[in-house]
Amino acid sequence: MRRHFAILLCLLSSSLLGADPIDIGSRRELFVDDLLIDKLSGDAELRLHHPTPREIAIVHDAPWEGSASGYHTVFKDGDLYRLYHRGLHLDVTKGKLSSSRHPPFYCYAESKDGICWTKPELGLIEFQGSKKNNIILEGRGTHNFAPFKDSNPHCSSEARYKALGGLMNEGGLFAFQSPDGIHWSLMRGEPVITKGAFDSQNLAFWDASIGKYRCYFRVFTGGVTTQAEWKPTGVRAIRTGTSSDFLNWGEETDLTYVDSPEEQLYTNQIAPYYRAPHILIGTPTRYVERGWSASMRALPDRENRELRSSAHLRYGTALTEGLLMASRDGVCFNRWNEAFLRPGIGRPGSWQYGQHYIAWNMVETESALPGAPNELSLYATEDHWHGQGGKLRRYTLRLDGFVSINASSRGGEFLSRPITFTGSKLTINFATSAAGGVRVEIQDTEGEPIDGFALAECPEQFGDSIDHTVTWENGSDVSLLSGTAVRLRFVLKDADLYALKFAD
């Protein structure tokens, strides 16, 4: 918290003292934080948007997958979408959670479109006398294996895919490698990170913005005891570290948050947002203890009541849901305290522990609406511990559509801090009503309109587009201002502004 206040004071002081403007170059900028915002006035506000539920993407109904499948990872690899998840079955009988029918495995599925998934028979790992299954890993690390494709330009071909996985009782997190994302081996016989709790999905990736690997893993704020007698104390929290070679990790520090209370965070799901990779976006799971209300006891759905009772016996009156957070330095995050993915309505068992764990990574998929642009797909768990198999539901979100600057029909304005840019046109991701619109003014750093780019010279822009070029009476060319410190003034009416970008 103190760190964030110091950042805000620094930004405020820079603005007041005429310090260097923010250089956004030709990057796409989102409004998941307030870096570019100097002032919101009128009816303008930052608004969090929520994913739309779609179809069940995959059912974990194979005997080695089961009801406790979890810790999903999804990413696009060329023309192929890859999905990884833990396979485990736990039974809830008469309000009690029984032990698993088998040790955990890690499983694999793939898709050509991110919507319809198949489980290939890989022939790698034996289960009950047969290798006709989609299992890729057994043994050490299979509680929380988290693969990624390494974009490090110096990565060797045998380690093109990497992963972290492991628990405290296994010694910590181990580093794995694979040449093809299917056949995996240890990079080292000993764990590469040993201080932590690790009882969650712990992950790592190559961060091109710093030229190093980043990792994010589970800790407890009060620390833990020895491996022999592990007992968590404090609050579930997230720690990060960096590495140049994926084996030797350092610079470890706990995440801090701009203006959020201390809450139990189960997963972190942090990754560079591929359309703006200088911004890290996470969709952690929030764990919430709630009182057992009379309204819950009176629910007419007997099965749902039994499921809630099971969650109550195992984890107290626990619920889980998805959050959204973003960072530019990988340590201090702007976390939205409002839920990003709520438990929702109409899905059995959604108001219980273990639901809505969002898979690591979002992928771009085609829209079902003819003529519409691509959209983001994200995936979240359902039916945890229930029935023959857990499920993964697909959700969709507008590209860049996490947060917008929104104004009602009463109108509002957004004034940016001083910036410099590179490019010849200003493009925006925006949506308006038929009666609404957006106008843009480019000002000098003193707030005076620049000739040719004044508000009165900007026709009202209206419509719904992820890549709209802003025009003034004399056209869209802003190249004469490239490299010059300016401010942007947006006047909005019944509109959402999701992102902006200068381009050639």
Please give the oligomerization state of what you see.
single chain
Indicate the structural class. mainly beta
The major beta sheet can be summarized as:
8 strands, antiparallel
Number of domains: 2
CATH architecture classification name of the largest domain: 5 Propeller
What is the number of strand segments? Answer: 36
CATH class placement of the largest domain:
Mainly Beta
Fraction in beta strands: 35-45%
CATH structural fold name of the largest domain: Tachylectin-2, Chain A
What does this protein structure show overall?
- The protein is mainly β and about 500 residues long.
- The chain has 2 domains: about 150 residues, Jelly Rolls; about 350 residues, Tachylectin-2, Chain A.
- The protein is about 5% helix and about 45% strand.
- The protein contains 3 helices and 36 strands.
- Strands 2, 3, 4, 31, 32, 34, 35 and 36 form an 8-stranded antiparallel β-sheet that branches. Strands 21, 22, 23, 24, 25, 26 and 27 form a 7-stranded mixed β-sheet that branches. Strands 6, 7, 10, 11 and 12 form a 5-stranded antiparallel β-sheet that branches.
- Strand 29 and strand 30 form a beta hairpin.
- It is globular, with a radius of gyration of 24 Å.
Offer a quick outline of the entry.
The chain is mainly β and 504 residues long. Helix content is 7%, strand content 43%. The protein folds into two domains: 2-49 and 405-503, Galactose-binding domain-like (Jelly Rolls, Sandwich); 52-398, Tachylectin-2, Chain A, CATH 2.115.10.20.
